[in-house]
Amino acid sequence: MKINITARHFEVPESLFSLIEKKKKKFERFENLILDFTLALSKDSLYFISEGKVKLKTGILNAKVQNPELGVAVNETFDKLLIQLKKHHEKLVEKNVRRK
């Protein structure tokens, strides 16, 4: 699974790439559902803004986090997207069970 990373108004540090690789492993379970994964990072005057967008076969999941620390913002974005993805997967499984 490939994550498209876009940084606005700053350069992405190398340490962030290792954090993203570590967090990405949790999404491998849902790899058959995910079509596209985009992470947009921007810097405001006081905060880093991390926006995650996951395109699925059956919809789109979004998460946006503001935090003074870049690593924390990215971490929270991945956590929010993972929670949404788990809920979405549960709904799909439940729907398939009811059909049978």
From TrEMBL:
Signal peptide segment: none
Domain of life, source organism: Bacteria
A Pfam family matched in the record: Ribosomal_S30AE
SUPFAM superfamilies xref list: Ribosome binding protein Y (YfiA homologue)
Designated name of the protein: Ribosome-associated translation inhibitor RaiA
Species in which this protein is naturally found: candidate division WOR-3 bacterium
Gene that encodes it: raiA
